[in-house]
Write a structure and sequence with these properties.
Layout: H1 2-10, E1 12-18, H2 22-27, E2 46-50, E3 53-56, H3 66-74, E4 82-87, H4 93-104, E5 110-114, H5 117-123, E6 127-133
Helix pairs in contact: 3-4
Length: 143
């Protein structure tokens, strides 16, 4: 069971866009090393959750709308089984992202979930993110 759960975690990716890094800083979720990222004008990075820590996703460009940047992240995958959009319900970004994804992947059922006040307190009210699950490995090798 532990091996199965660890395997699922290794193939699950969570990336999100925040309008402001202020909430992440106040909640202590953004390490001090990354404090200067949110201070640069017009730089609004995507963040990734890796090994329980939040870090800026460096490999993607810092221009474009949140929807364009999240779509850019998703299309990097050669395959995935599930995709969930998480949003606050306060803006239209989730609907726009879902429309883009339905166009790119018409066979995929894209789930949307509104995150609650506890998460909004940590990340802010205008956060848009995606969770991608690649699915089970086709070549399982037990060591």
């Amino acid at each position: 069971l532990v091996r199965a759960v660890r395997g699922i975690i290794a193939r699950t990716y969570c990336v999100f866009y925040v309008e402001s890094t202020d909430y992440l800083k106040r909640s202590g979720m953004l390490p001090p090393l990354h404090d200067t990222i949110g201070m640069a004008p017009n730089v609004k990075p995507l963040f990734v959750i890796e090994e329980g820590q939040i870090a800026p996703l460096q490999r993607l460009r810092n221009r474009g709308t949140a929807v364009e940047r999240l779509t850019e992240f998703i299309v990097e995958f050669t395959r995935f089984e599930e995709l969930v959009i998480m949003h606050s319900g306060l803006d239209q970004g989730a609907d726009e992202l879902q429309q883009h994804l339905n166009t790119l992947y018409p066979e995929l059922v894209v789930q949307k979930h509104i995150y609650g006040p506890a998460l909004a307190r940590l990340m802010g009210p205008y956060t848009l993110g995606v969770t991608v699950f690649e699915g089970p490995e086709t070549d399982l090798r037990f060591i």
